[in-house]
Amino acid sequence: MSVGKFVNLGAVALKNNFVRLSEPYKLTFAITYRCQSRCLTCNIWQMHPTNELTLEEITEFAKKNNSFRWIEITGGEPFLRSDIVEIIKAFNTYSKGLYIVTIPTNSLTNHELIIRKIDEILATGLPRLSITVSLDGYRELHDKIRGVPGNFDRAIELAKKLKELQEKHKNLFFVFGYTLSNFNQGQLERTYEEVKKLLPWVERENFHINVAQLSDIYYSNTNLSINASREALAGEVASFVKKRKVGLDTISLIEGVFLKNLVKYINTGKSPMPSRSLDASLFLDSYGNVYPSIMWGRKLGNIRDTQYSLKSIWHNSEAEEVRKIIKEGKEPQSWTACEAYQAIVGDIKSFTSLILP
Questions:
Q1: Phi-psi region of 329 (alpha: psi -120 to 50; beta: other; left: phi over 0)
Q2: What pLDDT, in 10s, does the model give residues 253-265?
Q3: Cβ–Cβ < 8 Å for 31, 77
């Protein structure tokens, strides 16, 4: 079953090289904007969300939009939603081709609850679940950037528990999510070495690297100064990537291409590949608003106004105008994993590079 779903995901992604899809196969969904962190690079924690989508509404959305093969659950802190298991169950029930769900966590929620929820999600038969544990520096630095004393130690302890859970669930994957900014510039290698002292099994490929970027609709951080030195940052990422082993599974290969192109993005400030927003994917916030991506605050509609169906939003005049802008290469420039992965497999040259040297 999981092999079939993986093949199905690959077939749709490959098809996207040649034609515009009639419906998205990838969904990025912020299920809540509640968050216990106090990050220097992000203002989500300053939000006081009300009237977020209920479980009943999300279930109706999952029922009426059942084409998803890949779902990125995000927040805020996703595990602050007590119904996160039921949310993922709904998507797994109705999107029969669903292969992978990814969830980030700041590790500040009760660990026993997180592990229990992950165990319950995996028990649904989901082929692949990937957890990203946020870690932006060595102990003192991470706690400073995240604004919560003891956060580094909690991240390490959660990683230990996830490693133990992997013995039970072979379809569980997890990495550390490291976001580069002016606050931790030049500290990636030191952070890796410090983590490895505590977790000897950790390798560089256990780190997913992102660069802090600005978004008015997602991070709400356009008033912050977070950019590091472009030249120094590119060198830091390139050095780390050079030492990183290349995994043989498809997701690891895609990650390798993502990181190589991250260096290009840092150097140029331009997206290294054409966007697949509103072709392969879209962003849904916790209030039901639909956007092309987490980086582009051009609202296309709200699922509450369409009885939770994406069809009329996906094909409305605003969406067509956005597609025209994307085709002309005039969309906001960014390179985040939420948007980059589908761009990689939706570009035939990059897709081929996953197979050939």
A1: left
A2: 888 889 989 999 9
A3: no
